[in-house]
Design goal:
The chain has 359 residues and is mostly beta strands. The chain has two domains: 177 residues, Sandwich (Jelly Rolls); 163 residues. The chain is built from two helices and 27 strands.
Length: 359
């Protein structure tokens, strides 16, 4: 009898966990960059980045460059496709280019930062990339495109795993897909006595698909922490859950020191394209669990990475009721798993809305 292996799919753009690294421009010739395949034809007129710290900053270039042999060439994509700025600490910089560039969908492009007159006393520290993404682990190679790169004291470019934090921006306000300047991971502890006492994500289902489980990233702070994973069918404040998956403290681990990232499964449930759903953590006792929220400077940036938004509430008498609060600039490390899908919804199959594990 043949054995069927489920083809696991996830909402487009999810990342279960962020952990940022930084890069220091403190010498002539130091450069950091990001590499992209342009997602659409349009006009690129800005480059965005995030500066974490500075000391005696100098004028820094933001450059749109061509790519050869996988790395930035040092040659501008067009005449004057660069701009300058003076970095400031804890700041998202969106740098206008002297001249814009008409990019074609599918074209390889690089966004590069360069502080050409920097010395040991002139330091500009930028977010370079994310260093932890469970998606990278399951993708196999450890490197995705788009990706980050750096050319520091070694004098040659090298690759860095993770999503780029130096991002070309289109004239219509679109950020290059899967590029964000300053995502951060924020841990939050809660239990069934805190406010809120239920946290997770809301999304509008892009296409009709069969939901068969969830992928979570959670840490039990006490070995006796217990919680449910719940799937709700609508945005109603008193909707009954379609799924309640109970988890008892040490089911997936024997300690409290580290996060667990299990995939859990249930009988398939069809989620219809165009309808709203919620997937949540709901503690069932007073022992804390810790979840991670990825946060962004704006909803636009969050939207380049995930179709989900954060949601939370204080439940009414521990029942499945209570007003929800949604936050468009964050999402929680908890994602639905899908096995099959159709393109019969209003999206018309114009773009892939679910990502297959390992692709």
């Amino acid at each position: 009898m043949p054995v069927e292996f489920a083809s696991l799919r996830f909402l487009a753009g999810f990342t279960p966990q962020f952990s940022l690294a930084t890069a220091l421009l403190d010498g002539p010739g130091d450069r950091i960059g990001s590499r992209f395949v342009a997602q659409k034809t349009g006009i690129i007129d800005r480059i965005a980045c995030y500066c974490t710290a500075v000391a005696s900053p100098v004028t820094t270039e933001a450059r749109l460059e061509s790519i050869s042999a996988s790395y930035p060439t040092g040659t501008l994509l067009g005449t004057n496709t660069s701009g300058t700025f003076t970095p400031a600490a804890s700041t998202v910089h969106v740098v206008p280019l002297t001249a814009s560039y008409a990019v074609q969908a599918g074209e390889l492009i690089a966004a590069v930062l360069n502080a050409p007159t920097a010395t040991a006393t002139n330091t500009q520290t930028f977010n370079l990339r994310t260093t932890i993404s469970m998606e990278l682990v399951y993708a196999g190679s450890g490197f995705l495109y788009p990706s980050s790169c750096q050319n520091l004291t070694a004098g040659a470019w090298s690759s860095s795993p993770g999503y780029p934090c130096i991002v070309p921006v289109y004239s219509d306000g679109t950020w290059m897909s899967r590029g964000v300047t300053n995502p951060a991971s924020v841990s939050v502890d809660f239990n069934n006595t805190t406010n809120p006492d239920e946290r997770g994500n809301r999304w509008t289902q892009p296409v009709t698909a069969e939901c068969i489980g969830a992928w979570l990233n959670v840490r039990q702070m006490v070995s006796g922490a217990n919680w449910n994973i719940k799937l709700y069918p609508t945005t109603s404040a008193d909707a009954a859950p379609w799924v309640t998956y109970p988890i008892v403290g040490n089911t997936f681990g024997d300690g409290t020191a580290n996060s667990i990232t299990p995939l859990i499964f249930w009988n398939g449930i069809e989620l219809k394209g165009g309808e709203d759903y919620r997937l949540t953590y709901q503690p069932t006792n007073a022992n804390n669990i810790r979840v991670v929220r990825s946060t962004f400077a704006s909803a636009v940036q969050a939207g380049t990475m995930s179709q989900m938004v954060g949601t939370s509430r204080l439940r009414t008498s521990d029942g499945d009721a209570g007003a929800w609060t949604d936050v468009a600039t964050e999402y929680v490390c908890l994602v639905p798993i899908f096995r099959s899908l159709t393109t019969s919804s209003s999206t018309g199959g114009r773009r892939p809305a679910l990502r297959t594990l390992g692709t």
